[in-house]
Specification:
With 507 residues, the chain is of the alpha/beta class. It folds into three domains: 2-74; 85-231, Reverse transcriptase/Diguanylate cyclase domain (Alpha-Beta Plaits, 2-Layer Sandwich), CATH 3.30.70.270; 247-506, EAL domain (TIM Barrel, Alpha-Beta Barrel). 56% of the residues lie in helices and 17% in strands. The chain is built from 19 helices and 14 strands. The chain has helices at 2-33, 37-75, 85-98, 115-122, 124-141, 168-185, 206-223, 232-253, 291-300, 304-322, 338-341, 344-356, 377-389, 405-411, 421-424, 431-446, 459-468, 484-496, 503-506, and strands at 104-112, 147-152, 155-162, 192-199, 227-229, 258-266, 271-283, 287-289, 331-335, 364-369, 393-399, 416-419, 450-453, 472-473. An eight-stranded mixed β-barrel has the order 6-7-9-10-11-12-13-14, surrounded by four helices. Strands 2-3-1-4-5 form a five-stranded mixed β-sheet, sandwiched between helices. Helix 7 packs across helix 8. The longest helix is centred in the first third of the chain and has 39 residues, at 37-75. The chain starts with a helix and ends with a helix. The protein binds ligand C2E and calcium ion (2 copies). One calcium ion is lined by residues 397-398, 418, 454.
Length: 507
């Protein structure tokens, strides 16, 4: 815009100067060249016409020249001097049209991971300088005949015809090394992601190729510091996953996730003593989606904190309204993901949230898988003691599946251990599982830790666990996870009858 105004002003000035000079000197010339008044009058008429033609030609020349200059300025990226996106697309289109049937072409996108934080940490000037030098590096490293462009702030693109002699993968990796080198030189801690599309496999025109390269780049960016070649099945999957993340965010925001409760039984009295709260997602289109599918997605996208709060809030409302807390239910176990457990801020926020649910707080027990505590044992000890100081008890879930099950108990003061279902399901036939379960029970007892067997599915397993001295159990033999109204009915009937008399309910 600024350039257009400058060039319009320039044209006006040139025109005004020319017109002024013409008026001044043309009259003098007419006076000097023609001596009769008749000739002078005729000359004045033609002089006017000549003025129109000459100024029209002059204006046309000036406008054309200025348009050319403007176009040229738009063809170049001002910061890096690389070609603009429109020129790049035209060139890609043109090159693809010229390709012969056996020709191959590579289109690569390079995007800086977390560029926003580079701007924030190092300031715009340093970031711009880094981009400028990176553009030089890329231009120097591309294949002969390549066209290079900066597509967006921190995204570069280049394409070139590929011949057999090029080791393509090594060539692409070189850009990652170049980037790392340049970032180090600038004292910038950053990585880049690269997406690659190949002609003709990933597209037969510029638009298709660019879509493929973008899809590949999006996958690379999810991994960060990665190179991704376009692959249709991968991008379809990535798109479905992206959609699922959006749907999950919406479900959390609109409180569309539900919870169910699986009761836990005391194996001496065979009476219910607690529940485990399990989250449920009924997707409007896809139907039931298991937490084993969506919890890992929530973990990758930082959504587990919100899920935990939602679960705690629902449990407080539902169990509080049902009047079950402190009577038939002594413990309400809530699952917390590894990423959340290892994030001190998240855990602090969850603890505060639990404390605010006054009716539920005294009964809350947090379940963490064994592997979640292993990232930093010292930190885990601290987090667990903070929880316990707030009156929240603590359970190790899926016990026995990690590699350090026994060693970890040396450092962690846990309230409960849940023996993983895989061992419980083996106690009938598999001597090794039986030995492991026996050892876990004996050890937990000597540490004064409560012990729960998970996934009890039949009376034979129950009998073996009772004989081993296991204190509590949960599993389909007793009850599947239930919505609160069904839980209420079950617990009410359990309270009236001994569980063994109701064996028909459990088979
Ligand atoms: P988990 O914490 O080990 O939960 C026990 C899982 O075993 C539940 O599956 C439960 O329905 C199932 N189960 C219980 N008894 C039996 C049995 O007798 N036989 C068999 N075959 N399965 C049984 P679910 O509800 O699908 O949950 C799967 C996992 O998803 C949970 O494993 C937990 O790791 C995670 N999860 C569930 N709810 C939440 C939640 O609110 N937050 C977080 N972070 N994770 C959750
Ligand atoms: Ca659990
Ligand atoms: Ca478990």
């Amino acid at each position: 815009m600024e350039k257009a105004v400058t060039s319009a002003v320039k044209i006006t000035i040139i025109y005004a100067v020319f017109a002024g000079l013409w008026i001044f000197f043309s009259d003098i010339a007419v006076e000097l060249l023609f001596d009769t008044p008749q000739l002078r009058a005729t000359a004045q008429t033609y002089k006017g016409l000549a003025f129109v033609f000459v100024t029209a030609a002059l204006l046309l020349m000036l406008v054309l020249k200025s348009n050319q200059a403007l176009e040229k300025a738009n063809d170049i990226d001002r910061l890096t001097g690389l070609r603009s996106i429109s020129v790049f697309i035209d060139a890609l289109n043109f090159t693809i049209r010229q390709l012969k049937p056996n020709d191959r072409l590579i289109l690569g996108y390079l995007d800086i991971d977390d560029f926003k934080s580079i701007n924030e940490r190092h300031g715009f000037d340093r970031a711009d300088n880094f981009l400028y030098e990176l553009a030089r590096d890329i231009s120097d490293a591309v294949l002969p005949g390549s066209v290079v462009s900066r597509l967006h702030a921190d995204q570069f693109a280049s394409f070139a015809k590929l011949d057999e002699s090029v080791d393509m993968e090594a060539h692409v990796r070189e850009f990652q090394h170049l980037f790392a080198y340049r970032a180090r030189q600038h004292g910038i801690d950053a990585t880049c992601s690269i997406g690659v599309a190949l002609y003709p496999a990933d597209g037969t025109n510029a638009k298709e190729m660019m879509v493929s390269a973008t899809e590949a780049l999006n996958i690379a960016k999810q991994k960060k510091n990665a190179i991704q070649y376009h692959d249709k099945t991968l991008t379809d999957k990535a798109m479905q996953r992206r959609q699922l993340v959006l749907d999950l965010r919406k479900a959390i925001a609109e409180h569309l996730l539900a919870v169910v409760y699986q009761p836990k039984y005391n194996l001496t009295t065979l009476t219910p003593c607690g529940v485990e709260v399990l989250v449920r997602w009924n997707h409007p289109v896809k139907g039931y989606i298991s937490p084993e599918v969506f919890i890992p997605i929530a973990e990758e996208n930082g959504l587990t904190g919100a899920i935990s709060k939602l679960v705690v809030e629902k449990a407080a409302q539902e169990l509080g309204n049902a009047g079950l807390l402190g009577t038939l239910i002594q413990h309400v176990s809530v699952n917390v993901s590894a990423d959340e457990f290892n994030n001190a801020d998240e855990m602090y926020s969850l603890t505060q949230f639990i404390k605010n649910q006054v009716c539920l707080a005294p009964y809350i027990r947090i379940e963490i898988t064994e592997t979640a505590t292993l990232t930093d044992m010292r930190k885990s000890v601290e987090i667990i003691s903070n929880l316990q100081a707030s009156g929240i008890t603590f359970s190790i879930d899926d016990f026995g599946t990690g590699y350090t099950s026994l060693a970890m108990l040396k450092d962690l003061t846990v309230d409960e251990i849940k023996i993983d279902r895989s061992f419980v399901s083996g106690v009938e036939q598999d001597e090794r599982s039986k030995t492991i379960v026996n050892a876990i029970i004996a050890m937990a007892k000597s540490f004064n830790i409560h012990i729960v067997a998970e996934g009890v599915e039949n009376a034979a397993q129950l009998k073996i666990l009772q004989d081993m001295g296991c204190q509590q159990a949960q599993g389909y033999f007793f009850s599947r996870p239930l919505p609160v109204n069904e839980l209420l009915q079950l617990l009410a009937s359990n309270a009236n009858d001994s569980i063994l008399n109701q064996s028909s309910t459990f088979t």
